[in-house]
Design a protein that fits this description.
Radius of gyration: 16 Å
Shape: globular
Strand order of the largest sheet: 1-2
Structural class: alpha+beta
Length: 84
C-alpha cells in the first residue's frame, strides 16, 4: 500500500513539473514521425510512472529527456554569469 502511495505521489510530481520531458518521438509505419506527451494528463502520468518507472533500472529518470543547462528547471548552474 505504501508503494502505491509513493508511485502516485511521483506521478503527481511528474505531471506538475516534468511534462515537457515526457515527450516521446514515435516513428510510424509510413515513415512519418510524431511526438507524443506521455504526461499530458494525470492518468497518463500515473500509467507512465508505473510502466516506465518500474521497468527501468534507474526509475522514471531513465525515461525523461535530459535537460540543457539553460532550461529553467535546472536549479544549480556551475557557470558564473556575473562576470560576463
Amino acid at each position: 500500500m505504501f508503494a502505491a502511495i509513493l508511485i502516485y505521489l511521483f506521478s503527481i510530481i511528474g505531471f506538475l513539473f516534468f511534462q515537457d520531458q515526457c515527450e516521446v518521438d514515435i516513428q510510424l509505419s509510413n515513415g512519418t514521425e510524431i511526438t507524443e506527451n506521455h504526461c499530458e494528463t494525470l492518468r497518463m502520468a500515473l500509467a507512465t510512472t508505473l510502466n516506465e518507472g518500474l521497468r527501468n533500472g534507474g526509475g522514471i529518470g531513465d525515461f525523461l529527456r535530459p535537460l540543457s543547462q539553460n532550461h529553467p528547471q535546472v536549479f544549480f548552474n556551475t557557470e558564473d554569469k556575473t562576470n560576463k
